[in-house]
What does this fold into?
Amino acid sequence: MIEAAKAQAARSGVSSARKRRDAQFAFMWALICLIASGVLWLFYIMVAVMADGAEGAIESVLLAFLVCVSLAWRIPMMFMMDKIRKGERKNTIAFGVCTLIFLDFISGIVLLCASEEPNEG
It folds into this structure.
């Protein structure tokens, strides 16, 4: 009986370490994508400034605005993902799905695989 409890504790420890490592990977990948979005926003702003015609400038400003809205959504999700990475917040399936849809495809899949909610079935 005691050996079974020790084995269960050892398995949950490995699983917990793996989930933390997966959350670390998801955070780092999402951070890279966030930085890439910021660079893309700067690129659109530069194109708008250097555009010859009004059409190119308007398109670039609209694209920069859309990227800015995307960044405004991604940055709070990154803070939440950082809390999951540090173990201060529980990883849930709902957050994994929101990450998959709104933040990044790869990070969302990794967070769904590392979810702490039990699988049914």
